[in-house]
Amino acid sequence: MPTSISSFLSPSDVFLDVGEPDKISLLSDLARRAAPSVGLSSDVIVTELMKRERLGSTGMGGGVAIPHARYTGLKKPFGLVARLKPAVDFEAIDNMPVDLVFLLLVPAAAEGDHLNMLAAVSRRMRSREVTQKLRTLQDKTIFYKLLTAEPEKH
What we know:
Elements lengths: L13 E5 L4 H16 L3 H14 L3 E3 L2 E2 L2 E4 L6 E11 L9 E10 L5 H13 L2 H9 L3 H9 L6
Parallel strand pairs: 1-5, 3-6, 4-6
Antiparallel strand pairs: 2-3, 5-6
Helix pairs in contact: 1-2
């Protein structure tokens, strides 16, 4: 059974038109936003995210990035999504700036969870139709519903 995005992303963790000048400022801002929900300090969150980014950018191309890391002491998987205005350089694989960022924080002990979460988010964000709509929506509720909608079975 594939992981659903709504199992780790709540409507209150959708942020539209976040403005940060660069990747490090952006990750720090997202860590500050996530910290109260997960019971970790923003410093701990950003340190692990930066360690992961040093292994290779989590910018997957097409203006989308999925920064993620695993944390000891985290009780359950957590997601946060931000649409950026303006887009920032994320050293993505296609060298295009990023304007849709999906932050994933995963418990260290949850072996397969983070791969399932990454797969769920990448499948959804790979749809050009979905990402184009996410770039234009002004209502957080509709943004959340589009992001968490289960793809139709054919």
